[in-house]
Amino acid sequence: MPLRSRLVGVGTYLPERVVSNDDLARTVDTSDEWIRERTGIRQRHIAAPHETCAFMGAEASRAALAQAGIAASEVDLVVLGTSTPDQAFPATAVRVQAALGLKGGFAFDVSAACSGFIYALAAADAFIQTGKARTALVIGSEVYSRIVDWNDRTTCVLFGDGAGAVVLRASEEVGPEAPGILSTHLNSDGTAGDLLFVDGAVGRHDGTGFIRMNGREVFRHAVAKLSAAADEALAANGMSHEDVDWLVPHQANKRIIDAMGKKLGLAPERVVVTVDRHANTSAASIPLALAEAVRDGRIRRNDLVLLEALGGGLTWGSALVRM
Ligand code: COA
């Protein structure tokens, strides 16, 4: 019998150092006003050298396991979404596994840029549904400060560092009202790969390796594709916009987030927003936002939560979760 993945814990880690828009305006030709008006971003956290992708992922995981009341030794799967791994290999997920003292189970990274958490969640969900794992850590951890060109004002103001994690547990309760992941939908279109990419490969030491983006085009794709993704998720579950209690979108730009909230007919207070304080933390943004709203009591048991993201690839997708 298929099993359902129940979301039983959330955790986060944010680097200590906070960099404001005014701080950035001292080094590039930008202003707090421009950044806030175009993106909604006020500040971002930037990792210190010891705050690596694995370090932050492990800290977020410990917090998620503590919240779930589950011992690390019970974890038999670690899936980590990142496009800023500490090393090409081993996967950051196995570094996290080691940091948690785990020797069993299996761990791997997922590379889907800003959709990394949705892809990681979908992968873990599939392993749980088919009985191949029972307790999974799903992590988004990113150190975009390493791949941002700090001289390029069109991108460097947009990103931040951080990590978020959730614990999934197999559950035999699978009825329509039973808690857990109701569906995931993943999409990609490689023909749009040059709209948002990193201009270098691992092992090339030629001054490449920075984010490049056609912001306007990405914006256009984001609104259209995320709207379609929301409809796809709801239709697959025989639900409508009114059924959604919370939208927890990828946090790239407040204007995209607002457009999605409007499209779903959700009151602004039903849309979880962290982009103002975290900026775009890529694969980490959804678990960071979800954890914040769970911890402060906004998202409660049985609430229906729609997660959605679009990122480089292009990749995009959704997850519909009954908490
Ligand atoms: N500070 C001041 N001015 C800036 C600037 C900055 N940080 N970055 C760009 N500008 C300037 C541009 O040079 C341009 O000037 P010009 O008209 O003299 O050429 C002007 O601002 C407008 O630039 P444009 O790129 O058209 O702005 P925009 O309204 O499209 O906003 C983004 C830019 C990046 C904020 C917006 O396109 C966006 O959010 N796109 C989606 C990005 C995204 O979500 N990426 C991640 C997906 S996971």
Automatic annotation (TrEMBL):
The active site is at C114, H250, N280. It is found in: Cytoplasm. It catalyses: malonyl-[ACP] + acetyl-CoA + H(+) = 3-oxobutanoyl-[ACP] + CO2 + CoA. Its EC number is 2.3.1.180. Residues 234-323 form the Beta-ketoacyl-[acyl-carrier-protein] synthase III C-terminal domain. It comes from the Bacteria. Keywords: Acyltransferase, Cytoplasm, Fatty acid biosynthesis, Fatty acid metabolism, Lipid biosynthesis, Lipid metabolism, Multifunctional enzyme, Transferase. Residues 108-190 form the Beta-ketoacyl-[acyl-carrier-protein] synthase III N-terminal domain. Residues 251-255 are annotated as: ACP-binding. NCBIfam families: fabH, PRK09352.1. HAMAP family: FabH. The last Arg residue of the ACP-binding site is essential for the weak association between ACP/AcpP and FabH. Homodimer. This is Beta-ketoacyl-[acyl-carrier-protein] synthase III. It comes from Rhizosaccharibacter radicis.
